[in-house]
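Input chain follows. Return structure tokens only.
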Amino acid sequence: QVQLVESGGGLVQAGGSLGLSCAASGLTFSSYAMGWFRQAPGKEREFVAAISWNPGNTYYTDSAKGRFTISRDNAKNTVYLQMNSLKPEDTAVYYCAAARTGPLTRATRVDYWGQGTQVTVSS
């Protein structure tokens, strides 16, 4: 049974930082492209960042470039999202995702989802 468990969400002031983690189990982690998506109230789930099975390739939505950093540790079966210079518009539930086929820049490619973690940025 595949499980993706996110942690690290919370409440932060604008301009602050948060780090998210996603621990994976039940799959050959090093063979999967991994990504982060988010969904704000009343909006569709959108792509935030992705990383290939080979950590050399990363992808970001325009609003995340320069502020967010995705990384992975295949030895720990964990993917991370470091978020800096947070803005109120970053407020959303953040979901970890895994896919056999990358780059994981579209929700239609996702094979597995985590349960999500809330990130709230106050102004």
